[in-house]
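STRUCTURE:
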């Protein structure tokens, strides 16, 4: 169901310059027993957000395309003489091995894997358990939710996304904070943690999902939620540093 696709995934696809066309018969949505009204609203909202964030377009077609043979497609596009010329060139590509190189799924997957690895290296995310002598049980755990990871990768692929995206994260009033780390104990993703080097409160906005648990946990009222742009992640600054 299209309603299950979050805006971050649409954004990542658009940021990677993947042309998108959604072919959907709206009668399926109207006859849906699970979410007849909410489903269409959800996927429309998700696609609208992705287009707003990236400045790129998702095409929409009410007619679901049927599978066609290459011969039929060539005849429709070129006419009989040109079609046979196109098929001849395709045959030469097959014989020479160029066709397998052009359409090799393994080759495409290699490029996708390499690009994804480049994104992850630039993000410098530290997922999982981290040895931390100042934390309980000597470990700190950080969890990157898939939707946030997709958004971060979108920013790496298309830097302009970070100015378009607004999100809610926590903020700390340094003057009111007494460093009792109550907020760290309730943080579900590890965005708030204890620094392994100094033992002080550490905060990584990339992991913060704005759940507000830290706000309720702080007896001093030092924690609040604020709306910021994705520029707060500092990914563009890191990119500039690498370039210089």
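SEQUENCE:
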């Amino acid at each position: 169901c299209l309603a299950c696709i979050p805006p971050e995934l649409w954004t990542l696809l658009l940021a990677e310059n993947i042309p998108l066309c959604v072919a959907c018969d709206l009668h399926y949505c109207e006859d849906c027993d699970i979410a007849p009204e909410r489903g269409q609203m959800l996927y429309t909202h998700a696609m609208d957000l992705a287009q707003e964030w990236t400045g790129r377009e998702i095409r929409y077609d009410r007619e679901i395309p049927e599978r066609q043979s290459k011969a039929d497609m060539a005849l429709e596009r070129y006419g009989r003489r040109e079609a046979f010329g196109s098929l001849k060139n395709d045959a030469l590509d097959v014989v020479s091995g160029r066709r397998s190189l052009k359409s090799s799924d393994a080759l495409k997957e290699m490029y996708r894997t390499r690009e994804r690895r480049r994104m992850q290296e630039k993000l410098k995310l530290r997922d999982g358990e981290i040895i931390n002598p100042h934390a309980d049980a000597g470990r700190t755990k950080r969890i990157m939710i898939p939707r946030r990871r997709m958004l971060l990768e979108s920013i790496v692929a298309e830097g302009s996304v970070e100015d378009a995206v607004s999100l809610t994260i926590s903020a700390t009033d340094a003057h009111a904070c007494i460093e009792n780390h109550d907020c760290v104990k309730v943080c579900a993703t590890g965005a708030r943690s204890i620094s392994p080097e100094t033992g002080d409160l550490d905060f990584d906005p990339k992991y913060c999902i704005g759940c507000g648990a830290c706000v309720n946990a702080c007896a001093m009222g030092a924690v609040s939620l604020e709306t910021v742009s994705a520029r707060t992640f500092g990914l563009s600054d890191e990119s500039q540093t690498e370039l210089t």
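REMARK: The CA atoms of residues 134 and 142 lie 15 Å apart.
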